[in-house]
Amino acid sequence: MPNYRIHKTEYIDETKRVSFKYDGKTYFGYEGDTLASALLANGIHLVGRSFKYHRPRGIVSCGAEEPNAICQIGSKKDLTEPNVRATELELYEGLEASSQNCWPNVKFDIGGINNLISPLIPAGFYYKTFMWPKSFWKKVYEPLIRLSAGLGKSPTEPDPDIYDHKHVHYDVLVIGGGVSGIIAAKMAAKNNLKTLLVDEKKILGGSTIYQNNESIKIDDKLSSEWLKNEIQEIKKLNNLTIKTRTSIAAYHGYNFLLAKENLTDHLPEEKKKNKIRQRLWKIRAKKVVIATGSIERPLVFNNNDRPGILLSNSIKKYLDYYGVTCGENIILFTNNDSAYETSISLHKKGIKNIIVDLRKSASSELIKQAESLGIKIYFNHVVTNTFGYRKINSLEIMKLSEDGNTTVGNKIRLSCDCLGMSGGWTPMVHMHTQSGGKLDFRDEDQVFLPKENSEDQISVGSCNGDFDLDNIIDKTVNKINKFLDIDNQDYQDTNIICSKENDKRNIWLLPNKIPLGKTKCFVDFQNDSTAKDIKLALKEGFRSIEHVKRYTTTGMATDQGKLSNMHALGIIADTAGVKMGTLGTTTFRPPFTPLTFGTLVGRNVGKFFEVVRKTSIHEWHVENNAEFENVGQWKRPWYYPKNGENMHDAVQRESKAARDSAGILDASTLGKIDIQGTDASEFLNRVYTNSWSKLAIGKCRYGLMLNEDGMVYDDGVTTRISENHYLMTTTTGGAANVLSKLEDYLQTEWPELDVYLTSVTDHYSTASICGPNSKKILNKLFPNLDLSDENFPHMSFKEEKLENINCRIMRISFTGELSYEINIESKYGHSLWKMCIEAGKEFNLTPYGTETMHLLRAEKGFIIVGQDTDGTMTPSDLQMDWIVSKKKYDFIGKRSLYRSDTIREDRKQLVGLLTDDPKEILEEGAQIVSDVKSKPIDMLGHVTSSYFSPNLNKSIALAVVRSGKTMKGQKLIIPMENKNINVTVSDTIFLDKENERLNA
Amino acid sequence: MFLINCPFCGERDQSEFSSGGEAHIVRPKQPTELSDDEWAEYLFMRKNIKGVQFERWNHTHGCRKWFNVVRDTSNDKILSVYKMGEKPPENYK
Hints:
heterodimer; A: 1000 residues; alpha+beta; Ubiquitin-like (UB roll); FAD/NAD(P)-binding domain; six-stranded mixed sheet; 24 helices; 50 strands; 22% helix; 28% strand; B: 93 residues; mainly beta; Folate-binding fold; four-stranded antiparallel sheet; 6 strands; globular
């Protein structure tokens, strides 16, 4: 096996050999390697197939910007992870990784045929190709596209890993632990500011930490040596927290940032167990220093995507940091000085290399150094083509014309096994723009820079467009002193020597003799967008960068165009003949690198996903086989199946029992609001549609609450407990909103009212007993209470002791039966319930759930707010005009009840429906029409509630129908998938219109 | 995410609050005297300003108090907070 690890470095521990599997084959690396550096050490460049053309692709970079080396980790159904960047994944014993987007394997991939038919699949081909015939879309095109879409495979089982969240507050947050970040963190922490320094890598130091060029020195030391000292120093500072393997995912307003800390991703399987995998830091910082650095740009030329073509500085990092050379015969293709550092470093380690430079000439220290070492430099030359299928083996260069628009002279063919490219550097302005900052464009080296720094955040170092080391350090120190309002002198006498870049030449799309249509000049490697695609989009009329991006999918892959966006912009600007600065950029959206859902969700999974509210009687319901229904956060018994009953049978039995003898319902979840104060009656007058002034103490009244727009909002029974004391009940789901709405009016519109509101929903448990035998059961429970209609009539309230515990008993009914609601302090709820059940045994007292409750009230035509109403129903629409006071001057929503729209006769109105076939049960939500032949069919309304009533032995339904009030007796049709159901409009009250059962 | 300085509790995370839309829209004292158009003006019409905006906020998961906020919608900076019933600060008009 070839070995490309050619020298020792302090970052690779050669005593700790690590074995790993890649595409099923076992390899070795060392502790300190990333998957990418270990693969390169084994001579492996080819790591995947491109998304669209399935071209062989190799490792390009050494960091978060990597477009090609993304792999699938692990194979377990619950733990496998797609799209992991091999350049960031730290190697560990037992790691299993595989390449993506290829079949049967990365070396021979069937999809490679796409490369041959590429003229047929230009930009936007999805929109152009699959138009005809129409019937092909569902059966042929869509399944095919879905098959080939997407990268990698998602896990198919729940993620077993543990994730965590942490909230922290700091005076200063420094993002990025390169030279400027370290200086900023030291200055802040030494000045007594509580500081957090985060860096995505395993160790601090950025790209300076492996800097070894003699021409770049600080205080007479190599810059890397100097920085190591600084890092030792800051580790001693008490005020400073350093978090490595931690990357900022999002920078929100008010300096609220999310960071992802990787805790176990670098550990072998057995050491990961039972440990937190990743932690999401939620950071509030008074001030933020952005020191995220810059990333190197590729160059856009024909066949610039072959395996073996990397970024020049990545070649340097693999060499100087990991001890791995990317080739033995390397060509560096550049338009700036930084490739010369790579060249010199390679040369010193005995790796043959030559430089192709776009510039006509250059004269910095670095260039002189390279020249003096005898490194061959082709100035004013451009790479026009590369060769080699699975790896580059040679390339062609040509001379550039004076204006750089074309090539001149003869082709020169050079052999190589690796090509390093450097198109300059792009400042990482993601954090700045995410925080709301704007950008400026600097023509000189074609970079977008943070426009202004606010008092809350600042960019320093190369993310601010400062590239030379002396510039970086001087500016960072000055800016930080000013930003933090401190006077730190630590760096005043620092002596920096570095090479200064004097010459620049930028060409976004490099010239070529071959027509553009016949080249493959890749702009976006991961989504396979070429320069040709971008030009085509412009030709077809796209102008906005946001549109070109979406049409060509440039910058839309998992790397979010970190390497491609600038070139796309440059090519658009050049083609359209506009200045790049005027084009703007696409939006930099969080996250900077992908996050797993697990990290975002943290511990809020499974039973911690949402709050669950249970009544004090819950355990009894569980013991008695209740099926539960979620109502808001509450768990309510839905029905109680007996002896294998299905839902229908259980509900029929419960409903019949409640009307024939007695039923009992856990009504504890109804919202309860305690209202007190001298203006309580006036307050109720204003919030309900009916009048409350004359309600006697000890009496109850039903109320309907509207929104200011006149639409029904909530309903419930309110009891007057004493002169200035009421107890309001609300719907279960509406309780919190009603309280908040009432508070709003009290605090903002009517602060003069003496009224206090308290939510007491959880303070009381409620057992509601109904049915003809309910009075007898009450009599057994409360033998001293006079239950006669004279003493305790319908809609009244009594206080009575159960043994020695106070109960509030209301005689109110939601079923139309004689009915009592017993309220007791929650801690006694369970006992009360059991005593009721015991007392009711001889009367077949039957527990019933929400479904039976809904059925019983529908028989009586009582509405459920939220089921029979949807925010567009007025009281009149519900045929409830009787509850709207004509006398009251004002109440919430009154004025809206006679707006031109609310008094329309043809609004949707609540009606009853009876099916012609009494056994036919309608589907809730079904549409209602009068004529199925007309086209388009006129929709009149829909079914809101539908049940089979065992007490009437027929199907009943409530519905909202246009002009329904005037349609009684009329025939309508419910068109279903297989048949039309004939119905007749009826009254909404189906049972006991005279309310005789209330006093049975 | 905003940090909101509740006038009763101090600085808290936005997640504790809920927004109540535009401030200083007074409910008409005599709604019955209003035409449909006038009532609709109160009921439906709200400003959507790019710049300084007066808003109502409620400390829902805190003291439950409503209060007013002056916010620049172009950069989300909260310029001032004040209690219900207090006069809005003059210098932002």
